[in-house]
């Protein structure tokens, strides 16, 4: 996941994450990582239209958004 976070920062790419919220609910968000910190990511959340902090320990999946042809946008 670190690679996905770093590439999101570097290339300003939107990624999809699945995480466990503070209320212990599963949530899926599309975000653009602004800052990759040791224990968290600071990211712009497209759904909330606001900058949010996501704790890495609560992120269970992170990947580049899929293109219409099924390929990951960040895949080379």
UniProtKB/TrEMBL annotation:
Top-level taxon: Bacteria
Protein name: WYL domain-containing protein
